[in-house]
Structure formats: C-alpha cells, structure tokens
Design goal:
By secondary structure, this protein is α/β, with parallel strands linked by helices. It is built from 20 helices and twelve strands. The protein has a domain of about 70 residues. Helix 1 packs across helix 4, helix 10 packs across helix 12 and helix 12 crosses helix 14. It is globular and about 60 Å long. InterPro entries: F-box_dom (IPR001810).
Amino acid sequence: MENLPSDILREIFDLLDPYWDEYSTANYWLRIPKRYKHAENQRDLSDLAKLRLVCKRFSSLGASYLFRCVVQRFNRESFRRLECLAEHPELGNHVKQFVYLMPYLYVKGPKDFDTFKSEGPQLCRDSMTRKIFDDDQFVYPRLYAEQQDIIKSSYDLHVLKKAMKSFKSLQRVTVLQTAGHLHHQLQHQEQPHHVWDYVYCSWAPASQRVVETMLQALQYGNSGVKSFVCPMISPQGLVKINYNIQQIALGGVWRQLTHLELSFDDKELSMNWPNGVNGRDQGNLDERILLLSELFFKDLFTTAENLSTIFLGFDPNRPLNIPLERVFHNVSWPKLKSLGLESWRLSAAEIIEFLKRHRKTLRGLRLGNIRLRDGDLWRDIVIALKRYARELQVISLDGCGYEKEFDKR
C-alpha cells in the first residue's frame, strides 16, 4: 500500500475525511447559507489520526486532512493545544477553517457564590436541578474564575495571534455559540428572574470578546481569510466593539472578505436577568439594529467591496421591521453572487430594487421567512425575478409569507 501513487492514496483519505463534502463541492457560493441553530460537536477524525501513524508518507499526506479544520473552545486546555499547534508551522500551514466554540460568559450577581450554593437548592424546581449544588457538582466558581483569568490575562488574544500568524492557508473563520447543561440549569429556578441576585450567563459580552479578539488576531497575523461566519451573534455585543479595533479591521480583515454570514441572537437564553441583561428587555430589536447599522454595517458594507456571498438573519419569530437599505446603505457589490435574508418585514419594491442593482452578477437568492408588507404580492417579486434576474441558478423562498398573516398568529 505504501507504493501506491499519491493520487490514489488521497482518494482513500477522502473517504475517511468527515469534511470532504465541504471542501470538494464546486461553486461553493451556490450553496445558499442557512440559519444556524446550534453548534455541532467536532466531527470524528480518529480514523485519519490512526492512519497517519502507519508510516511517514501517510503522516505527511494525512496532515493536510487532519489539520484542515481546527475547533477551538474557550478554556485553558483548548488554548494550550492551539498554542502547541501554532508552534508547528508545518502543521499550521494545512489549516483552512477555524471554528471557535464560544460559551456564554458567567457574570456575578449581587450575591456571591457561597450564598448561591446555600440558597440555590430552595430555588430549584426539581431534584435533578438541585444536584448542581452538591459539593462535587457545584462548578460555577471554577468556571467563572477560569473565564475571568483568560480574559484579564488576555491569554485568548495571545494564543489567537500566534495561531493566526501560523495558519498561512486559513480561508474561513466560524464563530459558534455553545450553551451547555450548566447554562440551562440556571433557567430552571423557581424564583422570578427579575429578582435574581446570583450568577447568570450573558451572551452579549461573549460576542464582543470573541469578535474583538478574532479581528485583532487576524489583523496581527496578516491573515488572508476570505470567509467570516457568525451565527447567533449578539447585536449588543457588536455595538460595543472597540472603535479602534473596528477601524483597523476595515483596512484589512473586512476589506478582503468575499463571504459574510451573520445571524443575530438577542434573547440571552430567554431569561429576564437583572440589570437589563436580557435582549428582550434592552429596548426594541429594531432600534438596536438601526444603531448597529450606523456604528458597524455602514462602514463594513462600504469597505467590503469584494463580497460575493452575503447572509443576514434574524429570529424567525421576531422579523426585523426596518427598511432594507437602512442596513445595506444602498451599497452595490460588483461581485455579489449569493444573497440570503432571513426574517424581515420588507416591501416588494425594496427586494426588486436590490435585485435590479445586482442583476448582472446574482446567481443565488435565498429569502427565508420574509414577510411582505400590506398591499404587496409575491407574484410581483416572481415577475421581477424573471425580468431582472435571468442569471439566477438557485432560488429559495422557504417560509415566506405576508405581514398581515404573521401578525394574526
């Protein structure tokens, strides 16, 4: 088997590669991005890892498969592994996709952890939830301390900078939200959340931290990344991004992007935490997106002139209710091939005008859960598609309907 030609061996490795379908499909832009729900667990790479142990030739060939996608978690052990990989450029050169699994950040309430442990069992709804307060199960202080240590020491930024500098072939960065059972256990309490005085979880500061550190690391490493994907990102977190970091990114990271996917999550685990932490209690979603548009989207879309794929998504149960161009600012992208919009209240004229601006380049269109305003008809949009978007190869209108029907639910 060692004497087989390299192209035959690569076909064998392809059969063992769990990411083969993602990297082998031609015309990637035709695969219209869809709204992400949850982070997936890291796929099984054990067969590839074992095959690399057979001989040096297999080890060399297998490295390009095994290290093609790196999955990072927000804890010290995972950062140590990433730092070790970054110190071996012969392996780091194979990394094409970086997946960052970011958890909710723990935030201290007015009462300390000792008080929470002593008073917590009386707040639980069932015996299973009470188990988290047992001596061997009560891990919130340790997790909180680890997160704070990583942030205050900037250990995450330090390692990410080393990694992005080492990953010379990096093409895609994906940031996924993770929420384990310890986060969800905080939901199942009998005490009303508006008087909650203990530790809680927040997604907004986590979003801010992960975006700020990734932008700084990519800029430091002079990365050529083309694709940036952030499902379930917090609008509050993006609003608070450091101005200087954002301006630096405009000259580098954002300018070179060809693929951008952003889906917004403003629910904070649907909990009414104290001090207005819950996105539903921090003002209207539309107002937050309008603010984000002026502070973030306007510069981003004006600068990222090479975009060929754009996806913007919102909660299907809470469609955005602001004009399309208040977000896109009438920008035209000369290379735009794929557009995806999720959960928006729009008029037919807004959609048609966007199609007309990009009719020469647009090949894929996905409109998901779009609610047409009163007086407009989807028939008019279909007619416009035939007239102005003759080059379209992929069209999806999944879940689309009318504003009036949606409001009657």
